[in-house]
Structures are given as structure tokens and as C-alpha cells.
Design brief:
It is a single chain. With about 350 residues, this protein is an alpha/beta fold. It has 2 domains: about 230 residues, Spore Coat Polysaccharide Biosynthesis Protein SpsA, Chain A; about 90 residues. Helices cover about 50% and strands about 10% of the residues. The chain contains 10 helices and 7 strands. It has a 7-stranded mixed beta sheet, sandwiched between helices. Helix 1 links the parallel strand 1 and strand 2. The chain is elongated. The two termini are about 35 Å apart.
């Protein structure tokens, strides 16, 4: 009887001045995942000024260092790229601040191992007995953001879209293309959902606040809400330009028609357009703007089709690179010449 094929699990974490917690997070990664697996850890040091990188290296992890702070989104993208270069079958993203229990990784990746999902996120709000202790405003903001993202995707029913404890299979990881450096949590969900990948969540008990320091993402909630909302709107314009520009243009045209009807009704009742004649200028202006927005929506839709083709080509390129890295890594371990990597996923660039 042949020995079960071993998986390659890569745990990655972005870190900025996390010397007080990073060692405990790394040590907390369980050696037994319930399946035969080789585990590697990647730490993306985002310009730390303390001993974060040194501690990570002492723990035997792969360290990707930024000379200066690049942002959580960029750190995540660099970690994901390095994980694929390492030939990962499953990639787990976890924060280095100690809010999440690395011992929950087996539960997090179970839907992927069972073939039920391509992407899994931990949720802090699905079960009342697992609700974390956190400021009311932060909890309310997270729940409202979940409603917004679910509305944008139109295909998800997630209770927590802001949690950074997540798992990706190879197909999901190869499909991730981020445009922003601020964060990745919301954009990733919208992007993967728009491509028809299977998304789910697993209720897990997590800390509601950091044990040390202050969050670099949600430290000032109004600014976080503004930047996250802007990112969601930008992603929505990218994924559904006809809907976004159609609604905006329709609103402008509707306002123009309302102004025009006001003048028309006044003329019908009084036989003259004075003193509301000037509203005709506003009606013409808003209707012209509305039609221009509709034209922009059509152009954006055509551009979106071009972007889709470019992303499919990028997916195939990354897939070829991934298979080459898998083949090279396995051949190096066996002392044989590199050959094609295992058929972990299909060549189909989309769902």
C-alpha cells in the first residue's frame, strides 16, 4: 500500500514590530495537522525597527524583509508569492500579533482538505459563545463591513470579512490579484467571489484586542472606515462597472427629469415658466452628465473585459511557475532532474 501523499502547508504572517508576540505565534503552529504534511513558515517583515526579523530567523522561518514600511496589502502579496515559490498546497495567513491561536490551523484548513472550499476565513461573530471582547464601535463596524461586502459580491453570506486568519488552496492563491497596499482582507473576498471560487468561514475563538501594541490598520476607526470603504468602492467599480455607473448615471438623469418635470407642471398650471425657468438649465446639465456617466460605464465594462483576459493570462503564467517550482522542489528532494510538477489543479483559469 502506497504512502499517503504529503501536503506542503505554508503559514505566512506579515509583521511590523511584533518582537513581543511573534515567537509565541510561530511556536504555536501545531506539528500535527491531521494529514501528512510538511510545514514551512514565512514572515514578511514590513520594515520593523525592533528584533522581529531576528527572532523569526532564530525560529528557522523564511524571512522576507522590506527596507521600509510597504503596507499590509503589499506584505500579504509578497508573502503569497513566496509561498507559491515554495510549492505550497495550502497557504494559511495569520497575524503575528497573537490575536489568533495557531493551534486552530487544522480546523481552519479542514474545509479545504475536505474539498468543500477554495478559501476559508475564521469568523469571530458567527457564534454568540465565541464573540470576542472588543470595543462596541469596532464590532459594529466589522459587522457593517460584512454586510457591505456581501452586498457587493451578491454571492457570499459571511459574518466576518475583516478577520486576518485565513486559508487558501493553490487555485485561490493563484487567482488573487491585489491593487491596494493598505489591506487585503476585503478586496480578496470580493475578487475571489467575482471569479466564482468557493468561499466559506469557520467559527473560531480569537482575541478581540491585541495583547501588545496598537493595530496599524484599525488603530483610528474613522480613517480605517474611509480607506476600507474607498477600497470596496474601487473594487466594485472594477468588478461591476455597468451596475455602478448605471446607478450613478441613472440618478443624475432622474434628477434632471425631476427638474424638467417641475418646469413642465408649472407651465401646465400657469401657462408660463417663470419663475422656475432656470431649472431647465439644471435639468439639461444633470441629464447630460448622466448620459456621460453611462458612456463611461460602457467604456469601463469594455476595459474590464480586457483586464479579465490579462488576469487569465497572469493566472496561467503563475500556474506554470508554480508547477515548475513544485517539480524543482520535489526533484531536488529526490536527487532527480526537475520535471513537471504534480497536477494539483487544472489549467482552467476560471471557475
Amino acid at each position: 500500500m502506497s504512502e499517503p501523499e504529503r501536503l506542503k502547508l505554508v503559514v505566512m504572517m506579515a509583521a511590523l514590530n511584533e518582537e513581543k508576540t511573534i515567537a509565541a505565534v510561530i511556536d504555536g503552529i501545531p506539528p500535527d495537522l491531521g494529514v501528512p504534511a510538511d510545514v514551512a513558515v514565512i514572515v514578511v517583515d514590513d520594515g520593523s525597527t525592533d528584533a522581529t526579523a531576528q527572532i523569526a530567523r532564530q525560529k528557522g522561518t523564511i524571512v522576507v524583509s522590506h527596507a521600509r514600511r510597504r503596507g499590509l496589502g503589499r506584505s500579504f502579496a509578497d508573502g503569497l508569492e513566496r509561498a507559491l515559490e515554495e510549492g505550497a498546497d495550502i497557504i494559511v495567513n495569520i497575524d503575528a500579533d497573537g490575536q489568533f491561536d495557531a493551534g486552530d490551523i487544522p480546523a481552519l484548513i479542514r474545509p479545504i482538505l475536505d474539498g468543500q472550499a477554495d478559501f476559508v476565513t475564521a469568523t469571530r461573530f458567527a457564534r454568540s459563545d465565541m464573540l470576542p471582547q472588543m470595543p462596541w464601535a469596532k464590532k459594529w463596524g466589522n459587522m457593517q463591513m460584512s454586510r457591505l461586502v456581501n452586498l457587493v459580491t451578491g454571492s457570499t453570506d459571511l459574518t466576518d470579512v475583516s478577520c486576518g486568519f485565513r486559508a487558501y488552496n493553490v487555485k485561490a492563491a493563484l487567482h488573487v490579484h491585489l491593487s491596494g497596499h493598505f489591506t487585503h482582507v476585503h478586496e480578496t473576498i470580493i475578487d475571489l467571489a467575482s471569479k466564482g471560487l468557493r468561499l466559506t468561514e469557520v467559527p473560531l475563538k480569537v482575541r478581540g484586542v491585541r495583547p501588545h501594541g496598537r493595530s496599524r490598520i484599525a488603530g483610528f476607526l474613522p480613517l480605517y472606515a474611509l480607506r476600507a470603504g474607498t477600497m470596496v468602492l474601487r473594487t466594485l467599480c472594477r468588478s461591476r462597472p455597468v451596475v455602478v455607473f448605471g446607478l450613478m448615471g441613472g440618478g443624475a438623469i432622474g434628477l434632471g427629469l425631476a427638474l424638467g418635470m417641475t418646469v413642465f407642471v408649472h407651465w401646465m398650471l400657469t401657462g408660463q415658466t417663470s419663475p422656475v425657468r432656470s431649472l431647465l438649465i439644471g435639468a439639461s446639465l444633470f441629464m447630460t452628465i448622466g448620459f456621460m456617466i453611462w458612456v463611461l460605464g460602457l467604456l469601463a465594462d469594455m476595459l474590464n473585459r480586457v483586464i479579465d483576459i490579462a488576469e487569465r493570462l497572469l493566472f496561467l503564467t503563475k500556474l506554470a511557475q508554480y508547477r515548475a517550482s513544485r517539480g524543482g522542489n520535489e526533484a531536488a528532494q529526490k536527487g532527480a532532474p526537475p520535471e513537471a510538477g504534480p497536477e494539483r489543479i487544472t489549467d482552467n483559469p476560471g471557475p
